[in-house]
Protein backbone atom coordinates (compact mmCIF):
# COMPACT_ATOMS: atom_id res chain seq x y z
CA UNK A 1 0.00 0.00 0.00
CA UNK A 2 1.26 3.47 -0.88
CA UNK A 3 1.28 5.37 2.42
CA UNK A 4 1.02 8.73 0.70
CA UNK A 5 4.04 10.34 2.38
CA UNK A 6 6.61 10.29 -0.42
CA UNK A 7 8.56 13.53 -0.43
CA UNK A 8 7.67 14.38 3.16
CA UNK A 9 10.35 15.17 5.74
CA UNK A 10 10.88 13.44 9.07
CA UNK A 11 12.96 14.02 12.18
CA UNK A 12 13.69 10.69 13.87
CA UNK A 13 15.39 10.72 17.25
CA UNK A 14 17.81 8.14 18.63
CA UNK A 15 17.96 6.54 15.20
CA UNK A 16 21.46 5.10 14.94
CA UNK A 17 20.25 1.63 15.91
CA UNK A 18 17.37 -0.34 17.36
CA UNK A 19 13.78 0.81 17.09
CA UNK A 20 14.62 4.39 16.13
CA UNK A 21 16.71 3.24 13.19
CA UNK A 22 13.96 0.84 12.16
CA UNK A 23 11.46 3.71 12.07
CA UNK A 24 13.81 5.79 9.92
CA UNK A 25 14.30 2.83 7.57
CA UNK A 26 10.58 2.22 7.12
CA UNK A 27 9.87 5.91 6.50
CA UNK A 28 12.72 6.14 3.99
CA UNK A 29 11.35 3.12 2.15
CA UNK A 30 8.15 5.13 1.66
CA UNK A 31 10.12 7.98 0.09
CA UNK A 32 10.42 10.20 3.16
CA UNK A 33 13.56 12.32 3.51
CA UNK A 34 14.86 11.78 7.02
CA UNK A 35 16.97 13.66 9.51
CA UNK A 36 18.30 11.27 12.13
CA UNK A 37 19.88 12.02 15.48
CA UNK A 38 21.84 10.04 18.05
CA UNK A 39 24.70 10.56 20.44
CA UNK A 40 27.14 8.17 18.75
CA UNK A 41 28.52 9.87 15.64
CA UNK A 42 30.07 6.80 14.00
CA UNK A 43 27.01 4.59 14.40
CA UNK A 44 24.78 7.44 13.24
CA UNK A 45 26.80 8.06 10.09
CA UNK A 46 26.79 4.34 9.33
CA UNK A 47 23.01 4.20 9.70
CA UNK A 48 22.60 7.25 7.46
CA UNK A 49 24.72 5.71 4.72
CA UNK A 50 22.83 2.42 4.97
CA UNK A 51 19.50 4.22 4.54
CA UNK A 52 20.76 6.30 1.61
CA UNK A 53 22.04 3.26 -0.25
CA UNK A 54 18.91 1.24 0.41
CA UNK A 55 16.28 3.82 -0.52
CA UNK A 56 17.89 6.76 -2.33
CA UNK A 57 16.29 9.43 -0.16
CA UNK A 58 17.97 12.43 1.43
CA UNK A 59 19.37 11.50 4.83
CA UNK A 60 20.86 14.07 7.20
CA UNK A 61 22.78 12.80 10.22
CA UNK A 62 22.91 15.13 13.22
CA UNK A 63 25.04 13.87 16.12
CA UNK A 64 23.86 15.04 19.52
CA UNK A 65 21.89 14.23 22.64
CA UNK A 66 18.22 14.96 21.95
CA UNK A 67 17.53 15.02 25.70
CA UNK A 68 19.54 18.25 26.04
CA UNK A 69 18.68 21.76 24.92
CA UNK A 70 21.76 21.89 22.69
CA UNK A 71 20.91 18.56 21.08
CA UNK A 72 17.37 19.66 20.29
CA UNK A 73 18.54 23.00 18.94
CA UNK A 74 21.01 21.32 16.60
CA UNK A 75 18.46 18.78 15.36
CA UNK A 76 15.83 21.44 14.73
CA UNK A 77 18.33 23.64 12.92
CA UNK A 78 18.86 20.77 10.47
CA UNK A 79 15.14 19.97 10.21
CA UNK A 80 13.16 22.99 11.43
CA UNK A 81 9.77 22.10 10.00
CA UNK A 82 9.35 18.32 9.72
CA UNK A 83 6.11 16.80 8.50
CA UNK A 84 6.82 13.82 10.76
CA UNK A 85 8.42 13.71 14.20
CA UNK A 86 9.42 10.43 15.84
CA UNK A 87 10.34 11.02 19.47
CA UNK A 88 12.67 8.46 20.97
CA UNK A 89 15.32 8.32 23.68
CA UNK A 90 17.01 5.56 25.58
CA UNK A 91 15.32 4.64 28.81
CA UNK A 92 16.83 5.18 32.26
CA UNK A 93 18.62 2.28 33.95
CA UNK A 94 16.80 -0.35 35.99
CA UNK A 95 17.10 -0.47 39.74
CA UNK A 96 15.37 -0.15 43.12
CA UNK A 97 13.40 3.06 43.68
CA UNK A 98 15.00 3.39 47.10
CA UNK A 99 18.29 4.09 45.35
CA UNK A 100 16.97 6.91 43.13
CA UNK A 101 17.42 10.45 44.36
CA UNK A 102 15.85 13.59 42.94
CA UNK A 103 18.57 13.97 40.31
CA UNK A 104 17.84 10.48 38.96
CA UNK A 105 14.15 11.31 38.64
CA UNK A 106 14.81 14.66 36.97
CA UNK A 107 17.16 13.03 34.47
CA UNK A 108 14.52 10.41 33.61
CA UNK A 109 11.83 13.06 33.19
CA UNK A 110 14.11 15.20 31.04
CA UNK A 111 14.83 12.31 28.69
CA UNK A 112 11.50 10.51 28.45
CA UNK A 113 8.88 13.18 29.11
CA UNK A 114 10.11 16.75 28.85
CA UNK A 115 12.35 16.37 25.77
CA UNK A 116 9.54 14.91 23.63
CA UNK A 117 7.14 17.61 24.81
CA UNK A 118 9.60 20.37 23.91
CA UNK A 119 10.15 18.89 20.45
CA UNK A 120 6.40 18.67 19.92
CA UNK A 121 6.08 22.31 20.96
CA UNK A 122 8.78 23.29 18.46
CA UNK A 123 7.13 21.70 15.42
CA UNK A 124 3.39 21.31 15.97
CA UNK A 125 2.23 24.81 15.04
CA UNK A 126 3.85 24.66 11.60
CA UNK A 127 2.31 21.24 11.08
CA UNK A 128 -1.05 22.80 11.87
CA UNK A 129 -0.42 25.60 9.38
CA UNK A 130 0.38 23.07 6.64
CA UNK A 131 -2.61 20.87 7.56
CA UNK A 132 -0.43 17.80 7.85
CA UNK A 133 1.58 16.41 10.72
CA UNK A 134 2.34 13.05 12.24
CA UNK A 135 3.98 12.75 15.65
CA UNK A 136 4.86 9.34 17.04
CA UNK A 137 6.36 8.88 20.49
CA UNK A 138 8.20 5.65 21.20
CA UNK A 139 7.35 4.91 24.82
CA UNK A 140 7.09 1.43 26.35
CA UNK A 141 4.73 -1.44 27.00
CA UNK A 142 5.44 -0.65 30.65
CA UNK A 143 2.98 2.24 30.32
CA UNK A 144 0.23 -0.41 30.36
CA UNK A 145 2.00 -3.10 32.38
CA UNK A 146 4.65 -1.52 34.63
CA UNK A 147 7.96 -3.32 35.10
CA UNK A 148 9.05 -3.00 38.76
CA UNK A 149 12.76 -2.51 38.12
CA UNK A 150 12.05 0.13 35.46
CA UNK A 151 10.29 2.54 37.79
CA UNK A 152 12.07 5.61 36.38
CA UNK A 153 10.87 4.72 32.89
CA UNK A 154 7.38 3.78 34.10
CA UNK A 155 6.91 7.18 35.71
CA UNK A 156 8.40 9.40 33.02
CA UNK A 157 6.76 7.69 30.06
CA UNK A 158 3.37 7.60 31.74
CA UNK A 159 3.65 11.35 32.25
CA UNK A 160 4.23 11.82 28.51
CA UNK A 161 1.26 9.58 27.78
CA UNK A 162 -1.03 11.77 29.87
CA UNK A 163 0.18 14.92 28.16
CA UNK A 164 -0.35 13.45 24.69
CA UNK A 165 -3.85 12.30 25.60
CA UNK A 166 -4.89 15.92 26.01
CA UNK A 167 -2.96 17.63 23.23
CA UNK A 168 -3.76 15.09 20.53
CA UNK A 169 -7.47 15.84 20.69
CA UNK A 170 -6.89 19.50 19.86
CA UNK A 171 -4.61 18.97 16.84
CA UNK A 172 -6.41 16.23 14.92
CA UNK A 173 -8.90 18.66 13.35
CA UNK A 174 -5.90 20.13 11.53
CA UNK A 175 -4.80 16.69 10.24
CA UNK A 176 -2.04 16.61 12.85
CA UNK A 177 -2.04 13.38 14.82
CA UNK A 178 -0.07 12.40 17.91
CA UNK A 179 0.20 8.77 18.93
CA UNK A 180 2.39 6.55 21.07
CA UNK A 181 4.03 3.28 20.06
CA UNK A 182 4.53 0.95 23.01
CA UNK A 183 7.15 -1.72 22.39
CA UNK A 184 7.05 -4.91 24.39
CA UNK A 185 9.98 -7.30 24.12
CA UNK A 186 11.93 -6.51 20.94
CA UNK A 187 15.31 -7.90 20.01
CA UNK A 188 17.34 -4.80 20.89
CA UNK A 189 20.36 -3.84 22.99
CA UNK A 190 17.98 -2.43 25.62
CA UNK A 191 16.24 -5.77 26.10
CA UNK A 192 19.54 -7.61 26.38
CA UNK A 193 20.85 -5.17 29.00
CA UNK A 194 17.71 -5.69 31.10
CA UNK A 195 18.22 -9.45 30.99
CA UNK A 196 21.82 -9.00 32.11
CA UNK A 197 20.68 -6.82 35.02
CA UNK A 198 18.10 -9.34 36.20
CA UNK A 199 20.39 -12.31 35.67
CA UNK A 200 22.81 -10.93 38.25
CA UNK A 201 20.02 -10.52 40.80
CA UNK A 202 18.60 -13.99 40.21
CA UNK A 203 21.85 -15.90 39.94
CA UNK A 204 21.07 -17.06 36.42
CA UNK A 205 22.55 -16.37 33.03
CA UNK A 206 21.18 -13.79 30.62
CA UNK A 207 20.75 -16.59 28.07
CA UNK A 208 18.47 -18.51 30.44
CA UNK A 209 16.28 -15.48 31.04
CA UNK A 210 16.17 -14.68 27.33
CA UNK A 211 14.92 -18.16 26.43
CA UNK A 212 12.37 -18.16 29.25
CA UNK A 213 11.00 -14.74 28.32
CA UNK A 214 10.64 -15.64 24.66
CA UNK A 215 8.89 -18.90 25.53
CA UNK A 216 6.51 -17.10 27.91
CA UNK A 217 5.40 -14.69 25.19
CA UNK A 218 2.26 -15.88 23.34
CA UNK A 219 4.14 -15.25 20.08
CA UNK A 220 6.98 -17.49 21.35
CA UNK A 221 9.51 -14.94 20.17
CA UNK A 222 10.61 -11.34 20.44
CA UNK A 223 9.59 -8.69 17.96
CA UNK A 224 11.90 -7.52 15.19
CA UNK A 225 12.82 -3.86 14.75
CA UNK A 226 11.51 -3.99 11.17
CA UNK A 227 8.03 -4.90 12.44
CA UNK A 228 8.13 -1.94 14.76
CA UNK A 229 9.35 0.43 12.06
CA UNK A 230 6.51 -0.55 9.74
CA UNK A 231 3.94 0.15 12.47
CA UNK A 232 5.48 3.59 12.90
CA UNK A 233 5.35 4.25 9.15
CA UNK A 234 1.66 3.41 9.06
CA UNK A 235 0.88 5.83 11.90
CA UNK A 236 2.71 8.47 9.86
CA UNK A 237 0.75 7.71 6.70
CA UNK A 238 -1.83 9.81 4.91
CA UNK A 239 -4.35 7.09 5.71
CA UNK A 240 -3.85 7.42 9.49
CA UNK A 241 -5.39 10.87 9.87
CA UNK A 242 -8.29 9.50 11.94
CA UNK A 243 -6.01 7.89 14.55
CA UNK A 244 -4.87 10.15 17.38
CA UNK A 245 -4.16 9.96 21.08
CA UNK A 246 -3.73 6.20 20.89
CA UNK A 247 -1.27 3.85 22.55
CA UNK A 248 -0.45 1.08 20.09
CA UNK A 249 1.02 -1.87 21.95
CA UNK A 250 3.35 -4.17 20.01
CA UNK A 251 4.20 -7.05 22.31
CA UNK A 252 3.27 -10.36 20.68
CA UNK A 253 0.24 -10.68 22.95
CA UNK A 254 2.16 -10.41 26.21
CA UNK A 255 -0.20 -7.88 27.81
CA UNK A 256 -2.99 -9.96 29.37
CA UNK A 257 -5.71 -7.32 29.64
CA UNK A 258 -8.82 -6.75 27.56
CA UNK A 259 -8.22 -3.00 27.11
Q: How would you describe the overall organization of this protein?
A:
This protein is of the alpha/beta class. Helix 1 packs across helix 8, helix 4 (102-130) runs parallel beside helix 5 (151-171) and helix 6 (189-202) crosses helix 7. The chain is built from 8 helices and 7 strands; from the N terminus they run βαβαβαβαβαβαααβ. Strand 2 (33-38), helix 2 (41-55) and strand 3 form a beta-alpha-beta unit. Helix content is 47%, strand content 14%.
Tag the structure with descriptive keywords:
259 residues; 8 helices; 7-stranded parallel beta sheet; single chain; 47% helix; alpha/beta; 7 strands
Kindly state the number of beta strands: 7
Q: Indicate the low-confidence ranges by residue numbers.
A: none
Q: Characterize the largest beta sheet: strand count, sense, and whether it forms a barrel.
A: 7 strands, parallel
**Percent of residues in β-strands:** 5-15%
Q: Radius of gyration over alpha carbons?
A: 18 Å
H/I helix tally: 8
Overall pLDDT metric = 94
Distance between the termini: 28 Å
Strand order across the largest sheet? 3-2-1-4-5-6-7
Q: Name the structural class.
A: alpha/beta
Order of helices and strands: EHEHEHEHEHEHHHE
Shape: globular
Helix content: 40-55%
In short:
The chain has 259 residues and is an alpha/beta fold. Helices cover 47% and strands 14% of the residues.
